[in-house]
Design a protein that fits this description.
alpha+beta, 8-stranded antiparallel sheet, 4-stranded antiparallel sheet, 3 helices, 18% helix
Length: 285
């Protein structure tokens, strides 16, 4: 009989404790949250027009900041197992299993989204300007319909350039000309390093430059620059694969490069674009 009274007493205490816990939780709610960061796999910056889904909740992220990607936070979640879905135009979507505990939850490492393509890309247009002694390029992707493509993944471009004296009848031209010009002495040939501008107000995000110190001295007033822009297919070949291909291709004579790249284009590894700028203001400054 005594044991029964002890048991009843213990159950009563447990019941009171349970009621107290419920009252405490009700009076002191703890929000279950999940924080994570998503960034472009190449640039390390924010991903435009991204959509995040978790437990029926949705976050839309368009532009962010010029200081890198911002953390995203889901609130009012239910503890337990769930799936985080991440997608954005022209990127490879990802799904990530999530185990949520009551309270704050955080994904330790950033999620890196891989860009698939620059949508509707048909050609590149390049504009040059001098910044000090360096020749700077602004690269503008354009669609087949004509408008520039302004928001897109940061694909790991390979960019090559050849700078030659612009000549006519074998001598350097003295003024801009639309016909009869040709390439004379080669002043530079190399791979260009590019940068990515993540500022929300930026329209064209790729920039490259040719260091003036690398250009052979020339007093010719006008130059012609031949560009080769290679856009990799990220799911078929990484940056290392493209670099390996281009180390061999870039050493070929100019007239043989297109044919060699054509075999890689047919294999679905890359897409190559050529662009020529005539009447570029030259001369050493």
């Amino acid at each position: 009989m005594r044991g029964r009274r002890v048991l009843i007493g213990a159950l009563a205490v447990a019941a009171v404790a349970a009621v107290a816990a419920v009252v405490y939780v009700a009076g002191n709610p703890v929000d279950t949250t999940y924080e994570f960061v998503v960034r472009d796999a190449v640039s390390g910056d924010w991903v435009w027009d991204a959509t995040f889904r978790l437990q029926g909740r949705v976050i839309r992220s368009h532009f962010q900041s010029d200081r890198g990607p911002r953390p995203q936070v889901f609130t009012r979640l239910q503890p337990g197992q769930a799936t985080l879905e991440i997608s954005a135009p022209s990127y490879v979507a990802q799904t990530i299993p999530v185990s949520l505990k009551r309270g704050e939850n955080r994904l330790a490492d950033p999620v890196e989204l891989v860009g698939r393509e620059i949508p509707d890309l048909a050609e590149w247009i390049i504009f040059e300007s001098w910044e000090g002694s360096d020749l700077v390029q602004e690269l503008r992707p354009a669609s087949a319909a004509g408008p520039a493509v302004t928001n897109h993944p940061a694909l790991d471009l390979w960019i090559g350039a050849r700078v030659s004296v612009q000549v006519a009848d074998g001598v350097p031209v003295r003024e801009e000309t639309d016909t009869g010009a040709a390439r004379g002495e080669e002043l530079y040939r190399g791979k260009l390093q590019w940068t990515w501008d993540a500022a929300p107000e930026t329209t064209f995000r790729y920039r490259a430059s040719i260091p003036g110190a690398d250009i052979k001295a020339s007093s010719a007033p006008y130059w012609v620059i031949d560009y080769l822009i290679v856009v990799p297919v990220p799911t078929a070949a990484g940056a290392g694969g493209i670099d390996g291909i281009m180390e061999q291709v870039w050493e070929l004579p100019p007239e043989a490069i297109a044919a060699r790249l054509g075999t890689h284009e047919q294999a679905g590894t890359l897409t190559a674009y050529q662009f020529t700028s005539w009447n570029v203001a030259g001369g050493r400054r």
